[in-house]
Amino acid sequence: MLKPLPIFDSAPTQRRHPAWIKARIPGGGHYAELKKLMRNLELHTVCEEARCPNIGECWNNRTATFMILGDVCTRRCMFCAVKKGNPTYVDADEPRRLGEAVGYLHLKHVVITSVNRDDLSDGGASIFAACIEEARKHRPDCTVEVLIPDLEGNWGALQVIVQAGPEVLNHNTETVPRLYRRVRPYANYSQTLTLLRMGKQFDARILTKSGLMVGLGETVTELLETMQDIRDTECDILTIGQYLSPSPRHLPVQRYYTPAEFDELRDAGVEMGFRHVESGPLVRSSYHAGEQALLGQNESVV
Predict the structure, then answer these.
(1) Of 13, 154, 176, 290, which one has the greatest count of Cβ atoms within 10 A?
(2) Contact partners, residue 294, CB within 8 Å, separation at least 6
(3) Domain for residue 302, yes or no?
């Protein structure tokens, strides 16, 4: 049973990763092939930019999460390794090249995410829509998942993305509301929940999805309350993974959850009514995304 946790505010409780935090070292034929493809088409992936621990496994399975709108983010979230600064331009040809990659890889499911582009009036929604269109042009049977920023609460921009017809609309909650100022200083917890709710209102057929990191100093009570808040938006799919600090400049890990605790969080989410809960130490928003989308179409599947 999950035990109540203290609130951590200072030094991490453990400096070295526990034994269950293991990821495959990047390499292999498909990994090299995919890396070459991304460079040739001048595309970015969140797998690389965010230093995802699953890059070796996913790339060898010929799957990747495309990161559009450049590789410079206008936000300064304290958990994220993506470069921060002032983006310079929008690459209008990017959707075409992304579509080519989707076709070349014969993808059945594609995940498209982006940096935050608060410098754009629509937050990049029009480019998201164009990417969805190009992906379908090259792979008509491919399902599309978009992992989007909060668009600064621009619901007209959100509607543009939803109307483009992605099967899955993903927006990460990331952490509990008490930690937002520290973890996501330019985001708003209420706005995040509203985005998930509005996605369903714009198209009831769309699968909505959100993700949480654990180990940032939250308590179990806070975590369960946040999971329930997400579910109350009618969100279908939830991912829960261990926060791993990408560098000494980022927030330290306050606690490592055990695999058994991740199983209990999964069970708690299923009891709340999520159609699917992916919970584990190395789970990330895009990990097993295609399988999640299929499972999410069935009620209460773990």
Answers:
(1) 176
(2) none
(3) no
| Cβ contacts of 38 within 8 Å, gap of 6 or more | 44, 45, 48, 64, 101
Q: Is 24 inside a domain boundary?
A: no
Domain range for 42 is 29-296
Structure tokens of 2? 């999950």
Distance CA 266, CA 233 (A): 18
The H or E element that residue 168 is part of is strand 168-170
Number of C-beta neighbours around residue 17 at 10 A: 15
Give the distance from CA 214 to its chain's centroid: 14
Residue range 208-222: mean pLDDT, rounded? 96
3-state SS record for 195-233: HHHHHHHHCCCCEEEEEEEECCCCCHHHHHHHHHHHHCC
pLDDT tens digits for 168-207? Answer: 999 999 999 999 999 998 899 999 999 999 999 999 999 9
CATH label of the domain that carries residue 170 = 3.20.20.70
> Of 2-16, 23-37, 145-159, which gets the smallest average pLDDT?
2-16
From 133, 138, 139, 131, select the one nearest 65 (Cα to Cα): 131
Torsion angle, alpha carbons of 69, 74, 75, 80, to 10: 50
Collapse the DSSP code of 173 into the 3-class scheme (helix H, G, I; strand E, B; otherwise coil) and give the result. Answer: coil
Number of domains in the chain: 1
Residue 12: inside a domain: no
Does a structural domain hold residue 16? no
pLDDT at 222 exceeding the cut of 60: yes
For the segment 63-81, the average pLDDT, to the nearest whole number, is 80
